# Entry
Amino acid sequence: MSSFLDIPLSVLDLAVITQGGTPADSFVNSLDLAQLVEELGYHRYWMAEHHNMASIASSATSVLISHIAGGTSTLRVGSGGIMLPNHAPLTIAEQFGTLASLYPERIDLGLGRAPGTDQKTARALQRDPNAPFRFPSLVKEIQQYFSEDNKTSDVRAIPGEGLDIPIWILGSSTDSAHLAAAFGLPYAFASHFAPAQLHHALKVYKSEFVASEQLKEPYCMACVNVIGADSDDEANLLATSLQKVFIGIITNNRRPLQAPDPDFQLLPDIAAVMNQFLKYSFIGGPEKLKQEISSFVATTQVDEIMVTSHIYDHAARRKSYELLKKIQEER
# Structure
């Protein structure tokens, strides 16, 4: 039985750009956070691929993974994820083969089928509008490039061939659960913004899982939003920055991450929609966080929790991760 006290904690970072800040500032903060959570004992640190978003600087995901891995020594570092239809599989195999050669036994390759952007930008990235529908075959192509057997092929990934680079399937629906189970790969669910099918997808994944060379038993991870502070009131104030991000998404008025706003209020209809999409957002002081996250793990029986935290002030974001690890270690 999974328990919050015993499972690994990991981090999802979007290299968030704050109001008044720059992408360069975000990259400095990301490395600082990675070094902190490594010291605290977090398990992995993933970067997410997004494009054409004013508040997210992680578009060149592989480059940032190298930045983080080069500044740390024990964390597993990877993608949460690479949006595979945006790329040629050979290119990704070579990039992650390079990363795994530079940082042996520390690199994860999380793959998703969504573009991670709007439709116009997706067209600019993909060139092939049918690529998302070929996602399973694209995953198999990467697996072939990583295999020892590919050394006799006319097209080879060098570096990449023969390296142990764990592949994860990312998703927010049962489609991804079926695929991860059929391929015998670990599964990461994006419950931090798409919670509706979480429980059904986990059930599908576990019930249909077929063992593979990479994985003998199902292994699933859920990503959640966490905003922790010394008190519930302080955490709720910090969370207004995340709420403004959500409003920007649904109104198509996206801006850099805004500072907390004590006067911010949500209209009831928008609040209802937001609460659906951000259902698995754990916001509060130590006692509230421990109770709610413990309940989430007990209910879902996930093997690992990945945390993302849209907090404007970097010192407050550091403190949130410190607090989360501290309450996990309290027996």
